[in-house]
Amino acid sequence: MAFPKDFLWGGAVAANQCEGAYNEDGKGIDIQDIMPRGIKGAPTAEPTADNMKLVGIDFYHRYKEDVKLFAEMGFKVFRTSIAWSRIYPHGDDAEPNEKGLQFYDDLFDECHKYGIEPLVTISHYETPLHLAKEYNGWISHDLIGFYERYVRTIFARYKDKVKYWLTFNEINSVLHAPLMSGGIMTPLAELSKSDLYQACHHELVASALATKIGHEIDPQAQIGCMVLSMPTYPLTPKPDDVIAAMQANNLNDFFGDMHVRGVYPGYMKRYFRENGITIKTTPEELALLKEHTVDFVSFSYYVSICETADKSKTKGEGNLIGGVKNPYLQESEWGWQIDPQGLRFVLNRFYNRWQKPLFIVENGLGAKDELVDDGKGGKTVNDDYRIAYLNDHLVQVGEAIEDGVPVMGYTTWGCIDLVSASTAQLAKRYGFIYVDRHDDGSGTLARYRKKSFWWYKDVIASNGESLKK
């Protein structure tokens, strides 16, 4: 398995799912602090004690211990996010919060101590709550200016510590989870498509602006977009199904097209016309989109789905975007279908479409892990199911590299157990490191290396040679 010598092996987390310390050192309230059921339930008026994210896994206070464990596995890169409301507590503040800035200075310094490059997501489902309540999130044009102030601050502060940046996490997910992804308080069922796509436009303009600013402040910075990839297959070879799958893929890939090509594609103009969607743009915004495209494309990959013109088919579970179930695939405990070859497929398709380097920044298996004695006086999790999942997906990454796809790196999602974004549970564990905390809030927060911890360490040390085809 021939992975490039400079391949960036690592893991990924998000501030809102691991840091905790939701109201410490000047941090403001963000939308996750009022979402105790993830996207499955209605938001609360204010933070409530049953919200697992308020404590997370206490990464804010334990990051040194955790980064040391990542280094023990041999991480070359660690993907995390900056909590916008740690830097600008309300989002529209005139001045940043120094204690928040210092925390990320300390975190990035800790990474560099072990030779780990930070890969930083600027906005990862963490819109300051004030911006959601007062402006209805990214529906408002004003958010572009607030985001610009935020990115200027962090690019200037961390230009010597961060090489790799992502502007928005899973930016296309705003179509399916507008509050979590876009800070939009209007429920999806009540949101007009014009308002929804206006919010998309504002985020895309802000992303291009961030790319421009980042390159001006640090010409060596690598700035990428991040999209939720969910390859959609036709359920049958029937041409109607093939066209339905094509249209579904286009609606998902539109965000990548905008980041890479910088112009609204014809298929979206048709979609807007046929659905009565109107959005406001300016010549200056359209020029910004065209002139400041990304250096690379990053994406999450968990599942593939099917599409059909037959509307009687029911949809199954998936990463925010459900889809018709594939009769040839098995599924996880949470109903997500497992398709390692889909990762090779999407890598090839994205590269053929965009001709940009690709970075897999989320991939993993959520499962109910059991902590057991390791026979040596300690505890572990015998997560062979996770090892099999990751091994099979990484084999397909190797196949894509053999196909000629330039893959920069791979960061597994939830390299340490954290609170799920979709369900706000800790029972849905992804990590190589078990965290002793449970959905009822109990637990010591102690860390334990799972069997997969040692497996991934070997994969990294061998640069993929230890993978089993």
From TrEMBL:
Q: Which UniProt keywords apply?
A: Glycosidase, Hydrolase
Q: Which InterPro entries match?
A: GH, GH_1_N_CS, Glyco_hydro_1, Glyco_hydro_1_AS
The Gene Ontology biological process terms listed for this entry are: carbohydrate catabolic process
Name the SUPFAM superfamilies on file. (Trans)glycosidases (SSF51445)
Which PROSITE patterns does the protein's record reference?
GLYCOSYL_HYDROL_F1_1, GLYCOSYL_HYDROL_F1_2
- Active site (catalytic residues): E362
- Tell me, what is one Gene Ontology molecular-function annotation carried by this entry? beta-glucosidase activity
Q: Which domain of life is it from?
A: Bacteria
Which parts of the chain are coiled coil? none
Please provide one cellular component term from the Gene Ontology annotations of this protein.
Answer: cytosol
The entry assigns this protein to a family as follows:
Belongs to the glycosyl hydrolase 1 family.
Name of this protein: Glycoside hydrolase family 1 protein
This protein's species is: Selenomonas caprae
Q: What is the lineage of its organism?
A: Bacteria, Bacillati, Bacillota, Negativicutes, Selenomonadales
